[in-house]
Amino acid sequence: MEDSGSKAVALAGKYDLNLVVPASDALLPALVASAGAGAAFAWEEFIYGRIRNPHTRDAYGRAVRRFLEHCERLGRTLPHVSPRDVGDYLDSLDYAAATKKLHLAALRHFFDTLVTRHVVVLNPAASVRGERLQVVEGKTPEITVVLARKLLHSIDVSSVVGCRDRAIIGILIYTAARVGSISKLRQRDFVDAGDQYCLRFTEKGGKSREIPVRHDLQQFITDYLRVAGLCNACDKSPLFRTTIRRTKFLTDNAMTGNDMSRMVKRRMRNAGLPKRLSPHSFRVTTITDLLSQGVPLEDVQQLAGHADPRTTRLYDRRNRKVTRNIVERISI
């Protein structure tokens, strides 16, 4: 049986390890390109092999590229980057603590790959401590129940676009799903389970979950499918589709998460809701509402699809309501 080292050599067969990769290669940071083919292989492995989530790949890629540009200005080469370089770079960032921690995590993973591929001897980011960050409440603003109802009632459902948008916003409210998960829904994911309908979501981390559909949400979705003429559509076709500009005619293309976010923001703006609200606000409201009714945390965690109950607690805004009542009683 081949050991891991032999496999790595086989995978690197297309690279001449003595070759210097041209710095003009736009896919590679200049510092990586100048370090040779071994560094180029490590870069591709880090970006395209180890990171499967496209959003993480984009964020980590930007973070590492920015640091390497910083090192290039200092005249450093990859083997000579030190922990001090990493620490000074993080101190220079005018970012929130959470963003700095993301940059540090990206650098640690990247240099780990360089160490594994023998491009550098030690990981200079491994010993650098991140800023202390204790999050007790998320930053996502909450939309009140009253405003959520106002938004639903403001949608004109005389057209297929209105029916579609009401169904999407209904899913946000009544399942606490993310727009990214809703955008992946196909016709087959609206499932008749016999006694009720369910929505089958594919979520972050490749998790697949089924969430029961309450009767009014079921009506929203079936109304949309009927008006759109999609009741007998192909199982693999997208559940929610884009329109041809302002014609209100649906295309065969699926709405993306960004499409849905823009739609929700537009609907909120038309309904006169605060600008700071976002599609994620419904997730906060649904979780807080259920916890306020005494629903056990583990059940709400199950609905939200969180692996850790501490994540669910970040969405709980009950303490904020208590604090608001207290500050209103200050008699000064």
Main beta-sheet annotation: 3 strands, antiparallel
Instruction: Tell me the number of structural domains.
Output: 2
In whole angstroms, how far apart are the ends? 78 Å
Number of helices: 15
Would you list the SSEs in sequence order as H and E? HHHHHHHHHEEEHEEHHHHH
Helix content bin: 40-55%
Annotated CATH topology of the largest domain: hpI Integrase, Chain A
- The total of beta strands comes to 5
Radius of gyration: 25 Å
Query: Structural class of the helix and strand makeup?
Result: mainly alpha
Biggest sheet, strands in spatial order? 1-2-3
Question: Could you tell me the mean pLDDT?
Answer: 84
The CATH architecture of the largest domain can be given as Orthogonal Bundle
- What shape does the CA trace take? globular
Assign the CATH class of the largest domain: Mainly Alpha
The CATH homologous superfamily of the largest domain is called Intergrase catalytic core
In words, what does this structure look like?
Mean pLDDT is 84; it is low at 1-26. The longest helix is centred in the N-terminal third of the chain and has 21 residues, at 54-74. The radius of gyration is 25 Å and the shape is globular. It has helices spanning 4-11, 30-33, 37-50, 54-74, 83-92, 97-116, 145-154, 160-175, 179-183, 215-228, 257-270, 281-292, 297-304, 309-313, 318-328; strands spanning 190-192, 197-202, 208-212, 241-243, 250-254. The protein is mainly alpha-helical and 332 residues long. It has 2 domains: 4-116, no CATH class; 145-326, hpI Integrase, Chain A. It has 15 helices and 5 strands. Helix 3 crosses helix 6 (97-116), helix 4 crosses helix 6 and helix 8 (160-175) packs across helix 12. Helices cover 52% and strands 7% of the residues. Keywords: DNA integration, DNA recombination, DNA-binding. This is Tyrosine recombinase XerC. It comes from Rubripirellula tenax. InterPro entries: CB, DNA_brk_join_enz, Integrase-like_cat_sf, Integrase_catalytic, Integrase_recombinase_N, Integrase_SAM-like_N, Tyrosine_recombinase_XerCD.
